[in-house]
Design goal:
About 50% of the residues lie in helices and about 0% in strands. With about 100 residues, the protein is mainly α. The longest helix is centred in the middle third of the chain and has 19 residues.
């Protein structure tokens, strides 16, 4: 993982994997598309599935585990709301060891 662009590529591949298993989902692959809520194309179960797929793909490519959603933070706002913000969050986690 080198940069924001590399992370976005993993996110988009993960979306493709989610769509392969759930072809009825309507997900736009754009950097500023919301991950949850109006315009996202994902319900909460599909969102969690996507998060798990992304975590597994990052682990496979970087050889390091990351956790995008911590149970302690479940009642607070997400740190990321778009694909681009998610990519920035992942990159920060990889750089800081979070």
């Amino acid at each position: 993982m080198k940069d924001h662009h590399d992370i976005l590529a993993v996110i988009y591949r993960s979306i493709d994997q989610l769509l392969d298993s759930n072809p009825d989902l309507l997900i736009e692959k754009a950097k500023q598309t919301p991950l949850l809520g109006t315009g996202s194309g994902l319900d909460s179960l599909a969102f969690l599935s996507l998060v798990i797929i992304i975590e597994l793909n990052i682990e496979t490519e970087v050889k390091r585990e990351i956790s995008l959603i911590n149970i302690e933070d479940i009642d607070s706002e997400l740190t990321f709301s778009t694909r681009s913000e998610l990519a920035a969050y992942i990159l920060k986690q990889l750089k800081t060891g979070g």
